[in-house]
Amino acid sequence: MLAKEGAPPIGSDEALAAIECARFRGSKFGAGFAGFKISGDDYRYARVKVFVLDESAYRDARRILESYNKQGLRIVEEIAPDFAAASTMATWEAIVDAEDSVLFHAAMDLNGQMYQDGVHRARVYSSSRYHNTFKGVGYPTDVAEEYRILDPVLEARMWIAHTRQPTNSPGMYPIWSHPFSVMEWSIVHNGDVSSFGTNITFLQGYGVKNFVGTDSEVICYLLDHLVRVEGLSLPEAALALTAPYERWWPRVEADVGVSEKRVRELCIQFLGAHLDGPFAVVAGHADADDVQMLGLIDRSKFRPLIVGEDDERIYLASEECEIRVLSPKARVWACDPGRYVLATGKEGFIENGLAPNRVMVEFTGLSPVPEVRADAVIDATGLAYETLLGEIRAAIHNGAKTIYIHHVRGQRYIGVGVPKGIHLILDGTPGNCLANFNDGADITVYGNTADDVADTMHDGTIIIHGSARDVLGQALQGGRIYVRGDIGNRGGILMREYADKRPIIMVGGRAGNYLGEYMAGGIIAVLGLAELEAGSDAQIVGDFVAPGMLGGWIYIRGRVDLNHIGSLPHRQDVENYLEVLALEGEIDQQTYEEVLALPALTLDTLAEVLPDRALELVRRMYDSKYRLPLNIRYDYLDEEDLSRLQPHIDEFFRVFGLSERLKERLLSEKFTRIFPIPKKPKPGDPEPIAEE
Q1: Which end of the chain has the lower number of beta carbons within 10 A, N or C?
Q2: Is the domain of 518 the same as that of 643?
């Protein structure tokens, strides 16, 4: 969390409260905090913090640091390690006067020399003027007590925090705990970077070595190298690390002001720095003038990154509950795939992780919940999810049919195993896996939900008055899901129908990427009501709509660019195919060269250059190799469409109290309708079995 210019500083107690909200995601093997511009610190000198295994390691580490005296490194003050109080490794803290480059190489040298026979006898885990790192083995509260950061409370311009050790580490020693810090950077990370080996090779090419062995630390080294050594701006560093798809480069230029040519240069020059795999990163940086907060996610957004803002602060978190516990009135949204978040204390948001033309209606928790008549009322304040689930079971056992649960803050698995005929009313922000495997219970949420709602649901109704995040209705097989706001990536993935069950997902706002991926049945409708009311013609779905779609219907209000439906081929595949067409005489040499000069090879750009027959051949190549043949129609709803949608639209508007006038406007709009083209039988295929 970052305090805006003129706002009061943030206390370490608030950082602890936020991360403890997600305690169930952590483990006893690691947690930590980093405070930036802590009140009262002397920024003239750097603070070097070293984990040391024993007194011998402390003496050796001190000797290595002192060996850099001739290069201008001077120990001004030190706090000797307290081995009696340390649970695993003790901390030696040295206040030093040194140039950044000297300090960096001294720390790297110390780490290398103190790694012997597979054991880190000592390890520099922080060396900075403008921030201080506190990390160890334990839960967040354990670490806060170990470093005594609550008595007195430390105040800083920005805090980042984490619970749980990195996935690819044993977690026995505090060196493997988050945050990972290198010079003025400190990061926390959720995910698993599959490019880990390539990233290390890239850094080793510049003389950076002696890693602790986790991808999280490598991300921090990459940020330090790109910004401090290569001199990239923070937006350039973010683009070099996330490497947006080539098709997104024109959008990057339009949205963030980094030219398409520069994006190409960054992606090529710093190819080895590109992060691949699922990741979400929150990074903090500080200098003499300001503090900066950077959020990064992978292009497919396999990990959540939630953004928030109120009058005084900016937030980044893996779960909304971590923001709500500090700021119930904050405006909260999910970062879009392929974008980054950048904010500073002085300037506020530079990039908020959203498309510039996006119209948002987010549930902030301010709308009063209607008077609820319930058989049982449960206050979820401070309850672990296991305790809350136990209270729900007890209420049902005692005969309650309608159960009102208020002050929900991130508890997961709510609604799992709840029998048919029960109605749960939730006020707040439920965590992951709401209503998974639901077989008939009804759930109403006055707030936003986290990822993975209604996974493999068979029956029942889910009503969400806010927005839902990623993977809504995965393998949905029955029932209805109505969302007043937006949904994230992969809504309706693997959705299907069987027997007389036809599931439906109806979204009042927008949908992210991969909508209806591998969908095999049911109905998805995306209405974009905020854009409709604002008079915006912006597309209300993301990229890769209906990839691998086998059945069902998708209805999207407004026009959807054909290049956003299905998957696009790699550029080299298209160029190879066009080369064949040129050799066969379908296109002439001049046309072929014009195509090669196009910045992006999409059906729209190719349509401006290719003759009709060649364009049709390319389209067939798309359909045969990269997407199943789909019937895509942009038109007004016909009687058949209305027979599928009208009852659900009527119920949707009734449930959310929307006006008849808005419904009439909606039904008078054109929709993009998508459904698979039935496969034509081939000679030799077995005859279909006739129903008796």
Answers
A1: C
A2: yes
Segment 152-163 mean pLDDT: 97
Same-domain status, 552 and 579: no
| Same domain, yes or no: 403 and 466 | no
Question: Is the full-model pTM beyond 0.85?
Answer: yes
pLDDT of residue 360: 65
Q: How far apart are CA 224 and CA 101, in angstroms?
A: 11
Burial of residue 600, with CB atoms counted within 10 A of its CB: 0-12 exposed, 13-18 middle, 19 or more buried = middle
In the numeric block, the tokens 């209300």 are attached to: 540
Is 646 part of any domain?
yes
CB atoms < 10 A from the CB of 565, how many?
Answer: 26
For 180-233, the pLDDT digits (tens) are: 999 999 999 999 999 999 999 999 999 998 899 899 999 999 999 999 999 999
Q: How far apart, in Å, are the Cα atoms of 11 and each of 145, 154, 216?
A: 15, 6, 25
Rounded to the nearest 10°, the torsion over CA 653, 659, 663, 668 is -170
Averaged pLDDT, 554-571: 86
Residue 676, preceding peptide bond in cis (omega within 30° of 0): no
Which of 369-373, 433-437, 530-534, 652-656 is predicted with the least confidence, judged by mean pLDDT? 369-373
Burial 493-531 (b: 16+ CB within 10 A, else e): bbbbbeeeebbbbbbbbbbbbbbbbbbbbbbbbbbbbbb
Contact status, residue 655 vs residue 463, Cβ threshold 8 Å: yes
Percentage of the chain beyond pLDDT 70 is 95
496: domain CATH number is 2.160.20.60
Distance CA 120, CA 349 (A): 40
502 and 411 both lie in a single domain: no
Give the pair of three-digit tokens for residue 122: 């000592």
Q: Under a CB-based contact definition with an 8 Å cutoff, are residues 619 and 562 in contact?
A: no
Pairwise pLDDT comparison (629 vs 460), residue with the higher score? 460
- Shortest CA distance to 417 belongs to which of 387, 447, 457? 457
Look at residue 14 and tell me whether its pLDDT is greater than 90.
yes
Residue 131 lies in a domain: no
Q: 309 and 220 in one domain?
A: yes
Look at residue 471 and give its three-state secondary structure: coil
**Domain-embedded: residue 492:** yes
| Shared domain check, 462 and 323 | no
Cβ contact 174:136 at 8 Å: yes
Domain that holds residue 311: 2-30+158-167+197-352
Radius of gyration (C-alpha) of the chain in whole angstroms: 28
One DSSP character per residue, 530-595 reads: HHHHHT-----B-SSBSTT--EEEEEEES---GGGBSPPPPHHHHHHHHHHHHHTTSS-HHHHHHH
Contact (CB, 8 A) for 512 and 493: no
Provide mean pLDDT across the span 392-400: 97
Average pLDDT, the chain: 91
247 and 337 part of one domain: yes
Q: Identify whether the C-beta of residue 438 lies closer than 8 Å to the C-beta of residue 456.
A: no
Out of 310-319, 329-338, 428-437, least confident range: 329-338
Q: Is residue 517 in a domain?
A: yes
